[in-house]
Amino acid sequence: MDYVQQRVAQMASQTDTSSSALLTPLNAILLSLLAYTAYAFLLRPAPPPPSLPAEEPAVVFRTFTPRTLLPYNGADGSPVYLAVRGRVFDVSRGRNFYGPGGPYENFAGRDASRGLACGSFDEEMLTKDLDGALDSLEGLEASELEALRGWEERFEEKYLVVGRLVAVGEEEK
Ligand code: HEM
Q1: pLDDT tens for each residue of 100-109
Q2: Are residues 86 and 118 in the same domain?
Q3: 97 pocket-lining for ligand 1 (C-beta < 6 Å)
Q4: Atom 11 of ligand 1 has which residue's CA nearest to it?
Q5: Is 32 in the same domain as 90?
Q6: How many domains does the chain have?
Q7: 53 within domain boundaries
């Protein structure tokens, strides 16, 4: 091999050495970091915006009469409402209690005031004439009114008031 060939071979081996010097473990790590950063900031598709929670249906405060309250007894998946002393509570969350087949289904869609006060499921606790006067709760003892107050407090904590109960003819007042 003459001098020129020797020199070319020498240069080639020098080039090899310098290119393998570029591939040090440190450079490899830096390169992968760079590649990852480029991917993360430039190439990766943006995550979808967080979906908003489904909107609760708005509560419209309504006026009910005993008759218009009646359908809200939870049958066929309808909401369950009951009234206590003129206030209508949406007790749908307690469907197991008040819905069809529940232990307190007699109160669903009704003015439950007297029944709750007396701790009774008797039919005569409920307003018979749906187009007549509301139960004035006349004749209840202090202890019964106290018990009723207790139920009201429980309902206030647990359920939403969705309306008021009035007698037929009193709707506009
Ligand atoms: C043998 C008698 C009774 C038993 C063993 C009984 C049992 C229960 C139980 C275990 C609960 C569930 C409590 C909870 O998890 O919050 C409950 C709730 C209730 N009970 Fe009774 N109960 C009885 C009598 C009555 C009577 C006589 C009335 C009224 C007439 C009544 C009205 C209610 C009401 C309104 C609720 C609340 C439901 C709600 O949170 O919406 N219970 N009862």
Answers
A1: 999 999 999 9
A2: yes
A3: yes
A4: 97
A5: no
A6: 2
A7: no
